[in-house]
Design goal:
With about 425 residues, this protein is an alpha/beta fold. Helices cover about 35% and strands about 20% of the residues. It has 14 helices and 14 strands. It has a 10-stranded mixed β-sheet, sandwiched between helices. A two-stranded antiparallel ribbon has the order 2-3. Strands 11-12 form a two-stranded antiparallel sheet. Helix 4 packs parallel to helix 7. The two termini are about 20 Å apart.
């Protein structure tokens, strides 16, 4: 028999806030977290893109210095978000053997890897830090969360590009359904605002080049959108069964009602243009939620602000929702945060949890003129979702053809 899985804790460190509540309030206020980069390496390497969605709060300002020194920034962000979610859920006293971690990253410890390479090249092998490998490995964030919170059921890592942390949430849902843990801390993190990644994404013409106006550069669905904006940070959600949450008197934000994961098997970077794989992921999420397309009241779209990606996702939504597609309130929150790559799905799932809990769809900012080929129902202001039960989906799609969708239902005890 299927169990009801609920969210009892949230945490975040994002370009628009150092905590979950700060990020949510800034999102509703229509604030942008994208700004000009002030690092000397921007000019040193003559990078054509000079802005990104840097985290609002440096994780080294939150963590103890000895802890932060042993972690790559991707793990630092993970720990900041997970600690907040753990405290929010009041998990003290949880059996460590029944506490699991499902984490994700799209790239991993790129700063640690390339800093170690610079040291090797400039100073020789004896000067390379012995912790370089533990810091750069993709499972380091999951390990850091597991060790700091004494989570011993499992500590698993997903790396499916920009779909990573939505997939980690689907995994957490399935692991709880299977009885592999009583509580799971699920989420994702990324810290890849680095000269190499900026140069590479720019070479494939994927990034916006609005150096003159970075705050409005991420503009999903706008006719003049010209690429995505890199972001960084992390988000964490505490998932557990409703039975356990009620027994311990936990506050419940929302229900994780289901999830779907598919593959396009089409192209390493481009989405399948008709949205076949993406639409299958939506259908799977609704099927596991015991819901129908007509039950959906809100969509948090992947919507990266790329000329091809936004249209492909729209096509996928049309496959699922048909003529009703343009009536459902849609939020494209990357317009405010930029794209956190492997961390983006968890952050947007957190926003979706708060959207159905508060019955309000966050705004989509920076749209100068909406693309007539994508006539979705978006707004530059928050939109009330109504007083009745809410069912939302949060979409994530990644290089390699990865598609992941999580269905989130409002919770009424």
């Amino acid at each position: 028999m299927s169990k009801k899985i609920v969210v009892t804790g949230i945490g975040a460190s994002s370009p628009i806030g150092g905590t979950a509540s700060e990020s949510w309030e800034a999102l509703l206020a229509g604030k942008s977290g994208v700004r000009t980069l002030e690092h000397d390496w921007v000019e040193k390497y003559e990078l054509p893109v000079k802005f990104a969605g840097q985290a609002a709060v440096d994780p080294t300002e939150v963590l103890d210095r000895p802890v932060a020194k042993r972690l790559d920034p991707s793990s630092q962000f993970a720990l900041v978000a997970a600690l907040e979610a753990y405290a929010d859920a009041n998990l003290e006293g949880t059996d460590p053997d029944r506490l699991g971690v499902d984490w994700a990253t799209g790239i991993g410890g790129v700063w640690s890897l390339l800093n170690a390479w610079d040291t090797l090249r400039e100073k020789g092998p004896r000067r390379v830090m012995p912790l370089s490998v533990p810091m750069l490995m993709p499972n380091a964030p999951a390990a850091a969360v597991s060790m700091h919170l004494n989570a011993r059921a499992f500590a698993r890592t997903v790396a499916s590009a920009c779909a990573s942390s939505t997939e980690s949430l689907v995994n957490a849902y399935e692991h709880l359904q299977a009885g592999l843990a009583d509580v799971v801390i699920a989420g994702g993190s990324e810290a890849a605002i680095h000269p190499i990644t900026i140069a590479s994404f720019n070479s494939m013409q994927a990034l916006s080049r609005r150096n003159d106006d970075p705050a409005t550069a991420s503009r999903p669905y706008s006719t003049d959108r010209d690429g995505f904006v890199m972001g960084e940070g992390a988000a964490a959600l505490v998932l557990e069964t409703e039975e356990r949450a009620l027994a311990r008197g936990a506050k419940i934000y929302a229900e994780i009602a289901g999830g779907g994961v598919t593959s396009d098997s089409y192209h390493i970077t481009a989405p399948e243009p008709e949205g076949q794989g993406a639409s299958r992921a939506v259908h799977l999420a609704l099927e596991t939620a015991g819901a129908k397309p007509e039950d959906v009241t809100h969509v948090n779209a992947h919507a990266t602000s790329t000329p091809t990606g936004d249209g492909a996702e729209y096509n996928a939504l049309r496959v699922v929702f048909g003529d009703r597609t343009d009536e459902i309130p849609v939020s494209a929150t990357k317009s405010a945060t930029g794209h956190l790559l492997g961390g983006t799905g968890a952050l947007e799932a957190m926003f979706t949890v708060l959207a159905v809990q508060n019955r309000i769809a966050p705004p989509t900012i920076n749209v100068t003129e909406q693309d007539p080929e994508i006539p979705l129902s978006i707004s530059a202001e928050p939109v009330a979702l109504g007083e009745g039960p809410q069912l939302a989906i949060s979409n994530s799609f990644g290089f390699g053809g990865h598609n992941a969708v999580v269905a989130i239902r409002s919770y009424d005890a």
